[in-house]
């Protein structure tokens, strides 16, 4: 009996969310476009760099250095400057990210076995990209130094740092980004669908009808909980398929673990959404409330930048963020074959968040009833 | 004679109507707590998040350090890793001790000084240090590599200053202009001001105007003698002022709380922001006029306003590194023009040739949005 009632409510909720063709479009189209655009756009890699060179050296080594830089795929264009002023203008106006200045005695110093010097100027307004470019330039210059007569001995003494990247040997950025997007777009969708569901009914007055129906509070709650979770699981499935078949991200762990934890993640997300919904009186408040939760949740999840970079007093705040845990799971299951124990350790906080938010939402509904 | 009187009255009435309209809109903003929330509370939260929460400065990355054979030389090398301000080092005897930590993300990398290091160094046989990094976060991975390189280079410099090794044949002198400490906050906080203005301009405007369409009050206003131009200006001017006010709040916080240097002029700051608000408000208006529904408007504002300002503007991610097709899309994202200019006003100073281009493009995009919004408003009524 109660199952039939619940089923009717679930069907009604799904219809409410998907009936309007424009709303249907919003729920399906943009998340997929977002996945495609952001997976390609959101990269902290640095490519197609424009560089300016002020070569005051007339000898062989200066030319050689410029040539070697030109041969690197990182650099798109190398402009030749004639004066320091030209370099300054190009950096100021952001026509180039970096400039290299080779002094007049560069080749002479190298031939004479004296330490030669080059100067690299980088745009600190884009300090992340600058740092990466400076790393590239140092490596190219180091390689050239090893070819110089004086450098050969020094190079054989110099410490080589042999880097090996586990889990992602070529450091392909999409292998990082796509699993992140799976988790964060599911957050976006789950939150918006749920936050609006109660607020809209409240604005239309149908929520009171729901309350006076024979449904019990926990049934209403389940009816509001399950449909957004179904929509969320649908999205997660599409993204996992896209991750594997479009972006070629290796799925090394168990799909079962991924789906198992996804259910708890979605329950936590929908719980937060219902809680926001129960607090708001109008749709506008619900939209803003969802937004107010979503932006910090995205920024304090380890998605954009690692949690350990944050100040120590801010890190505990991330503990109430469901995205934080699911990001570890998604990335871990995809790339690292994360063991069951660790997945479980990350799932427990998700359960807690779900229980706390859902029971507070239920309490808020019931309080309204009385 | 009568005609003239009419037009006179019309003009006076026009101004009075306009003032009345402005007053109505202002009351509406002040009375609605959600406007204040978007215009002042949300910007502060965002600024705090970008100031404190989002940091590309990897301070103290946790790594495991394995020295396979203790000699004075390798101990010395290990010390330069422990002393690096970028690493928090846990020492171990065997690499396998850290394998699980790397899987679970407890360390970001493992540095191994192999047993052959001292012998290779003595024989000048290219001594090597192995760095195993967690590639599941490529950005941190490449930073760990760079820092490991720097720690090794530091050690070499020490050796050569003590006369134990020859100096490198080519020394690189690096200078980071405008931001020598490479504080990511210094460019993230100015950039986030653009995102805050997108929120006020696009999200708030589209929500409020869409609500009026939803409730039918927009049609009611259209039925009054108010002209379309008056209606739009009266509606947008208060949001324009709100946008400028929240920008001012952000700049004050950026300078006085986060200590971001401000090297340009206040004039440049306001001219740039005002030019940016044109496309931002225009987009909000266009969204509300085409959707006339709060849910759709908020979603569209997020997807076409907030997320592109965040992801396709060069704020966090380099536009040059994106695929060509996506680079084309970035040309119509107004924040793409504002963010570098804001970063310049804060960190470098007034560079008017750059600002001039940005302002011209932003105003152009703005007028296109307004034209489209005006067209779709008129069409719906007629």
The percentage of residues in β strands of chain A lies in: 5-15%
Question: What Rg of chain A, in angstroms, do the CA atoms define?
Answer: 28 Å
Tell me the distance between the termini of chain B: 33 Å
How would you state the average pLDDT of chain A, rounded? 87
Given the helix and strand composition of chain B, which structural class is it?
alpha/beta
Oligomer kind? heterodimer
| Count of spatially separate domains of chain A | 2
| SSE order of chain B | HHEHEHEHEHEHHHHHHHH
The CA-CA distance between the termini of chain A, in Å, is 25 Å
Estimate the mean pLDDT confidence of chain B: 84
* pLDDT < 50 runs, ≥5 residues of chain B: 1-10
Proportion of helical residues of chain A: 55-70%
Radius of gyration of chain B: 29 Å
Largest interface: A-B, 107 and 108 residues
Apparent shape of chain A:
elongated
Describe the protein's architecture and organization.
The complex is a heterodimer of chains A (370) and B (382). With 370 residues, chain A is of the alpha/beta class. In chain A, 67% of the residues lie in helices and 9% in strands. In chain A, β1, α3 and β2 form a beta-alpha-beta unit. In chain A, α8 packs parallel to α11. Chain B is an alpha/beta fold and 382 residues long. Chain B folds into 2 domains: 233 residues, no CATH class; 101 residues, abc type-2 transporter like domain (abc type-2 transporter like fold, 3-Layer(aba) Sandwich), CATH 3.40.1710. Helix content of chain B is 69%, strand content 9%. Chain B has 14 helices and 5 strands. Chain B has a 4-stranded mixed β-sheet, sandwiched between helices. In chain B, α7 runs antiparallel to α9 and α9 packs across α10. Chains A and B meet through α2, β4, α6, α7 and β5 of A and α2, β4, α6, β5 and α7 of B. β5 of chain A pairs parallel with β4 of chain B.
Comma- or semicolon-separated keywords:
heterodimer, A: 370 residues, alpha/beta, abc type-2 transporter like fold, 2 domains, four-stranded mixed sheet, 9% strand, B: 382 residues, 14 helices, disordered N terminus
């Amino acid at each position: 009996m109660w199952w039939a009632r619940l089923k009717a409510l679930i069907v009604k909720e799904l219809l409410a969310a998907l009936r309007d063709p424009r709303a249907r479009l919003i729920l399906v189209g943009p998340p997929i476009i977002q996945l495609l655009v952001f997976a390609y756009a959101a990269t902290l890699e640095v490519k197609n760099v424009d560089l300016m060179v002020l070569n005051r050296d007339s000898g062989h080594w200066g030319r050689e250095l410029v040539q070697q830089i030109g041969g690197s795929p990182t650099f798109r264009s190398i402009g030749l400057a004639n004066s320091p002023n030209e370099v300054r203008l190009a950096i100021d106006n952001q026509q180039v990210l970096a400039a290299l200045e080779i002094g007049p005695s560069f080749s002479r110093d190298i031939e004479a076995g004296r330490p030669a010097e080059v100067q690299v100027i980088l745009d600190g307004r884009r300090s992340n990209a600058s740092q990466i470019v400076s790393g590239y330039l140092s490596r190219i210059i180091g390689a050239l130094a090893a070819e110089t007569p004086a450098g050969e001995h020094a190079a054989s003494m110099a410490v080589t740092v042999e880097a090996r990247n586990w889990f992602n040997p070529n450091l392909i950025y999409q292998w990082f980004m796509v699993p992140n997007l799976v988790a964060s777009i599911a957050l976006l969708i789950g939150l918006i669908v749920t936050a609006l569901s109660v607020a809209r009914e409240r604005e239309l007055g149908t929520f009171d009808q729901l309350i006076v129906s024979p449904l019990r509070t926990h049934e209403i709650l389940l009816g509001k909980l399950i449909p957004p979770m179904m929509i969320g699981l649908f999205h997660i499935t599409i993204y996992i398929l896209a991750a594997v078949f479009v972006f070629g991200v290796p799925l090394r762990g168990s799909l079962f673990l991924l789906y198992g934890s996804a259910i708890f993640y979605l329950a936590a997300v929908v719980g937060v959404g219902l809680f926001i919904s129960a607090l708001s009186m109008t749709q506008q408040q619900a939209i803003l409330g969802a937004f107010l939760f979503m932006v910090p949740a995205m920024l304090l999840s380890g998605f954009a930048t690692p949690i350990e970079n944050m100040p120590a007093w801010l890190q505990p705040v991330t503990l109430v963020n469901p995205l934080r845990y699911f990001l570890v799971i998604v990335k871990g299951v995809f790339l690292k074959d994360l063991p069951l124990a660790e997945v479980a350790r990350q799932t427990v906080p998700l359960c807690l968040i779900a229980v706390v938010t859902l029971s507070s939402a239920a309490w808020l509904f019931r309080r309204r009833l009385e | 004679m009568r005609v003239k009187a009419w037009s006179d009255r019309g003009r006076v009435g026009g101004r009075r109507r306009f003032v009345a309209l402005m007053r109505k809109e202002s009351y509406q903003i002040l009375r609605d707590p959600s406007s204040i929330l978007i215009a002042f509370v949300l910007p502060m939260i965002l600024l705090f998040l970008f100031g404190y929460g989002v940091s590309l400065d990897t301070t103290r990355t946790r790594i495991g350090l394995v020295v396979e054979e203790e000699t004075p030389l390798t101990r010395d090398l290990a010390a330069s890793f422990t002393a690096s301000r970028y690493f928090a080092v846990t020492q171990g005897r065997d690499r396998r001790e850290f394998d699980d930590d790397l899987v679970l993300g407890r360390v970001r990398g493992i540095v191994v000084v192999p047993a052959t290091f001292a012998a290779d160094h003595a024989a000048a046989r290219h001594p090597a240090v192995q760095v195993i990094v967690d590639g599941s976060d490529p950005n941190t991975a490449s930073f760990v590599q760079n820092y490991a390189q720097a720690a090794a280079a530091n050690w070499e410099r020490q050796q050569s200053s003590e006369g134990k090794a020859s100096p490198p044949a080519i020394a690189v002198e690096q200078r980071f202009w405008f931001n020598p400490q490479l504080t990511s906050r210094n460019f993230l906080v100015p950039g986030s001001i653009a995102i805050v203005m997108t929120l006020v301009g696009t999200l708030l405007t589209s929500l409020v105007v869409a609500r009026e369409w939803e409730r039918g009050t927009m049609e009611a206003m259209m039925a009054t003698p108010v002209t379309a131009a008056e209606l739009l200006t009266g509606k947008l001017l208060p949001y324009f002022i709100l946008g400028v006010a929240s920008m001012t709040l952000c700049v004050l916080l950026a300078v006085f709380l986060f200590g971001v240097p401000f090297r340009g002029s206040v004039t440049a700051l306001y001219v740039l922001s005002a030019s940016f608000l044109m496309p931002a408000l225009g987009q909000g208006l266009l969204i509300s006029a085409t959707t006339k529904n709060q849910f759709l408007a908020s979603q569209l504002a997020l997807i076409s306003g907030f997320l592109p300002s965040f992801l396709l503007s060069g704020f966090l991610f380099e536009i040059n590194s994106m695929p060509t097709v996506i680079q084309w899309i970035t040309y119509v994202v107004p924040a793409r023009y504002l963010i570098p200019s804001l970063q310049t006003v804060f960190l470098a100073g007034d560079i008017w040739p750059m600002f001039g281009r940005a302002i011209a493009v932003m105003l152009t995009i703005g007028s296109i949005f307004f034209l489209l919004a005006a067209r779709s408003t008129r069409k719906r009524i007629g």
